[in-house]
Design goal:
By secondary structure, this protein is α+β, with helices and mostly antiparallel strands. 50% of the residues lie in helices and 15% in strands. It contains 8 helices and 7 strands. It has a 5-stranded mixed beta sheet, covered by helices on one side. A two-stranded antiparallel ribbon has the order 1-3. β4 and β5 form a beta hairpin. The longest helix is centred in the N-terminal third of the chain and has 54 residues. The two termini are 33 Å apart.
């Protein structure tokens, strides 16, 4: 084959557990090569989907176990410290501030851990036919875009509709757009497109700080965050929502179509 280096690159990507690599179809130069490239790319997509499903199932199990054990341990601490804080002898002593710190910290941890229960308590999707133009207009009009940030939407063809739960898909788009805003992006593009029988794809691109290759590999892992005040739940939750909606979400290579950061959602 004339482009054996591309196939070697694909093999190397597989060895490195990077299933986002795709061979450009336009690289085909002889009869039958385009079909081979399409097949290889589809295999990469399927392996990526399978890996994501396995990872998500594992993290769901871990999250359920951790939240259960941590909540069981923290609940009596909160209860006992609350009782002590009501005691007059404690209220009038030097122990009060220390006991209050224990109570408040434990209560805060319970609230923090409880947020991760979302992984195992997501509502069952209630899909309906959703017009993509109306969906994106809704995102634009809910007030999450500051005046100094430009949001562009592009849809090809203009009348695309998707069969999804509108509340869940809206939450995914809001999370990704808010992440871009918090990362100091000044330009955001949401580009929805569908060709022939291919899945509908929605790309959310921005010009914020680039995400390193290492960070990209961990970006959807629960508890992983690149933000100082982040809790690492947003993108993990996005992926679970898209998974239970029968689609997939990935981060595209840095610089795709000139954008620093690009997420792509695929929905059948």
């Amino acid at each position: 084959m004339y482009h054996s280096s591309l196939y070697q690159t694909a093999l190397e990507a597989i060895r490195n557990n990077d299933f986002s690599f795709r061979i450009p179809e336009e690289k085909a130069t002889f009869p039958g090569e385009r079909a081979a490239i399409i097949t290889i790319n589809r295999m990469m997509e399927l392996m990526q989907e399978q890996r994501q499903n396995i990872e998500m199932a594992s993290w769901e199990r871990i999250t359920r176990i951790l939240t259960h054990e941590i909540m069981n341990s923290l609940a009596p601490i909160v209860s006992l410290s609350d009782t002590f804080l009501e005691e007059e002898a404690i209220r009038n002593s030097e122990l009060y501030e220390g006991m209050k710190a224990i109570h408040d910290t434990s209560e805060g941890l319970i609230s923090f851990v409880d947020s991760y229960r979302k992984f195992s308590a997501l509502q069952k999707p209630q899909p309906e036919n959703v017009n993509v133009r109306e969906l994106l207009d809704n995102i634009r009009n809910i007030g999450i875009i500051p005046e100094n940030v430009s949001l562009e939407t592009k849809i090809e063809p203009e009348d695309i509709s998707i069969n999804v739960d509108p509340n869940l898909i809206r939450q995914v788009l809001i999370n990704i757009v808010k992440n871009a805003v918090e990362a100091s992006a000044t330009r955001i593009l949401i580009y929805a497109f569908k060709y022939d029988d291919a899945p509908t794809r929605i790309r959310i691109c921005n010009n914020g700080p680039r995400i390193t290759d290492e960070e990209q590999r961990e970006i959807f892992v629960p508890f992983f965050t690149t933000k100082r005040t982040g809790n690492g739940i947003g993108l993990s939750l996005c992926r679970q929502i898209i998974n239970i909606s029968g689609g997939s979400i990935s981060i595209l290579p840095t610089g795709t179509n000139g954008w620093n950061v690009s997420f792509q959602i695929e929905l059948n």
